[in-house]
Design a protein that fits this description.
By secondary structure, the chain is an alpha+beta fold. The chain is built from 17 helices and eleven strands. Helix 5 crosses helix 14 and helix 13 crosses helix 14. It has two domains: 236 residues, D-Maltodextrin-Binding Protein, domain 2 (3-Layer(aba) Sandwich); 97 residues, Periplasmic binding protein-like II (D-Maltodextrin-Binding Protein, domain 2, 3-Layer(aba) Sandwich), CATH 3.40.190. It has a four-stranded antiparallel β-sheet, sandwiched between helices. A three-stranded antiparallel β-sheet has the order 8-5-9.
Length: 341
């Protein structure tokens, strides 16, 4: 509906469009007005599942600045707690698109899953997440034995813990896992001393440092694993409208450039959409490397995650990850950023 209204405004007249574009958001849309060629195209309608953190910023920027409109993409955003939730929604047919970190994405592939990886859209920086504790007995990860940790089940956070345990010769059953459903729950549990340690992202770091006796043990380099985030789309939608999918990717690439060039404005959008404090949003942006690409290294990483998880009992399904990757749309749009064999 948003794109149809936009097109009607163009047809009506440029002067009316300017008058209707008095708000800051509509000014941004006006600056991103579609070309004559795009006007003749049918809007690409897509239901997009996004998480409630920095992983979703590319989609929110594309919506709020009019970039989706510019590329004639009629995108409706549905917000969930984590990336894994966006995948579950897409599998159930509630959305068409999902975004998830490697472990979450790899955990859901099966014969019945029609989602296909189109691109890597972000890579975490090592300093984007730190291991915090307020228990004086915990000096290094080895001291987590017998302690209570906050875990976001079925997310990349759970995989991060598993890799940390492997590196420090800990067995999963030796550590008391407290499964919690959101960052807010993790913070509350930490504040009330219900957990001894958890991984803290940039958006929570300020609040955690204000808690007495809270200490930073180290960043994710402790586990030797850096998350990569992927964009997934329903295979049937890709087959029905390949040109629309390409416009969708172009819009996200433009939004990625916007984030890099205008982090303060991106943080303001995050505040408007998520009520995330601007300073926390800026830290979250610094914690991510936003880029649309699909490289062999990306494929090797998610393959490694899937194989390790299967070998260690985290996954039940064994499959070939290549069956769930479609590099064609991105290769058509950004050929220099696709090196998947």
């Amino acid at each position: 509906m948003k794109s149809r209204i936009f097109l009607f405004g163009i047809v009506l007249s440029l002067s009316v469009f300017v008058l209707l574009s008095c708000s800051e958001k509509k000014d941004a849309a006006a600056s991103a007005a579609p070309t004559q060629g795009n006007v003749a195209e049918t809007p690409f309608v897509v239901r997009v599942g996004v998480d409630s953190h920095a992983f979703s910023f590319q989609f929110r920027v594309a919506e709020q600045t009019g970039i989706f409109d510019k590329h004639n993409v009629d995108a409706e955003l549905f917000t969930f707690s984590y990336g894994i939730d966006t995948i579950n929604a897409a599998i159930l047919g509630e959305t068409d698109s999902a975004e998830a970190m490697d472990f979450a994405a790899a955990s859901r592939f099966s014969e019945s899953n029609k989602l296909r990886i189109l691109a890597t859209i972000t890579t975490a920086n090592p300093d984007g997440s730190h291991l915090y504790t307020r228990n004086d007995a915990i000096k290094t990860p080895s001291d987590l034995k017998g302690k209570r940790i906050g875990v976001q089940k079925a997310t990349a956070n759970e995989f991060l813990w598993a890799r940390l345990f492997e590196k420090y010769n800990l067995k999963k059953e030796e550590v008391n896992h407290i499964y919690l459903g959101s960052n807010a729950e993790l913070l509350a549990a930490y504040q009330s001393n219900e957990i001894d340690a958890f991984w803290v992202g940039a958006d929570l770091e300020k609040a955690v440092n204000e808690i007495p006796s809270s200490r930073d043990i180290g960043n994710v380099s402790l586990a030797g694993y850096l998350q990569r985030g992927f964009l997934l789309l329903d295979a049937d939608l890709i087959a029905r409208n390949p040109a629309g999918v390409e416009r969708f990717l172009k819009a996200l690439d433009e939004a990625t450039t916007f984030i890099k060039e205008k982090p303060e404005e991106t943080a303001r959008i995050a505040y408007e959409d998520l009520k995330l404090p601007v300073d926390a949003a800026l830290k979250s942006i610094e914690a991510q490397n936003y880029e649309l690409r699909l490289t062999q290294e990306d494929l090797d990483q998610i393959t490694s995650v899937a194989e390790w998880s299967y070998a260690n009992g985290l996954f039940r399904n064994k499959y070939n990850i290549k069956d769930y990757i479609d590099p064609v749309p991105l290769r058509n749009v950004l050929p220099d950023r696709v090196t998947v064999q």
